[in-house]
Amino acid sequence: MRTDLVLTVAQSKRLIAKGIARYEPVRQALASGTVAIAKGGSNAYVVEEILDRAIEKHRYVLGQVLPRGVSREGRLAADLPDVVLVQGKPVEGAVATEFAARMKAGDVFIKGANALNYATRTAGLLIGHPTGGTLGAVIGTLIARRIRLLIPIGLEKSIPTDIVEASRRLEAESGPGPSLWPVHGDVFTEIEALRVLFGVEALPIAAGGVGGAEGAVWLACFGAQEQLDAVNALGDQLRDEPPFVRA
């Protein structure tokens, strides 16, 4: 059986965050290990779902894509403290990039991205920082210690370009603009969220729209009737999710 969801960007972020909070590797790390949540738009929703309380999400953001001519000033900030949880309890004053040195296999480091090739499970991260920003500070530690890199990313960030090839092209050309870092980790989209939450198969069948559906994704969901009823109930719950920030 089938039901469909059309999700705005903000609704997708909320759905993904709900799925991550229920994702078994995250649940295990919250119970007996460490979960570090780097700053970012999608991650701000993850913070809310894991802590089960609202935060000022626009203050939990580092780099962010904005339209030309729109200033970050007064809209976005990075002045909330990082959220790092050890056995489910927030560590006061912790900095996610520094805390990675204390993490181990089975722990989870959560970091968003800017681009997605879903078929190859490759994410792309725009890099403007001279030493690679958040990921540059922790990637060696994550790989060496087998810490799970969990990448919450909406399907709206899917691009038709091969991320690895695009990265090579940018490396070869001089000029302004960020680099593109291909990243392989545990990619977690709306598809994974719906599977974790309801056990349904979600198939992206369209994208975009107007009247607030700009950037939206259209997902056909397949499963038993009771599963689809639960999907629809969450869809109703997500209906009033506001945009992350207003221009």
Can you describe this structure in just a few lines?
It is built from eight helices and twelve strands. The chain is an alpha/beta fold and 247 residues long. The chain has one domain.
Written account of the structure:
By secondary structure, this protein is α/β, with parallel strands linked by helices. It has one domain. It contains eight helices and twelve strands. β3 and β4 (89-90) form a beta hairpin. The termini are far apart.
Largest sheet: 6 strands, mixed
Number of strands: 12
Shape: globular
Strand order of the largest sheet: 4-3-2-5-8-10
Q: Which structural class matches the secondary elements?
A: alpha/beta
User: Runs with pLDDT <50, length 5+?
Assistant: none
Helix content: 25-40%
Oligomer: single chain
Number of helical stretches of at least 4 residues = 8
The end-to-end span amounts to: 39 Å
Order of helices and strands: EHHEHEEHEEEHEHEEHEEH
Number of domains: 1
The value of Rg in angstroms is: 18 Å
Strand content: 15-25%
Overall average residue pLDDT: 94
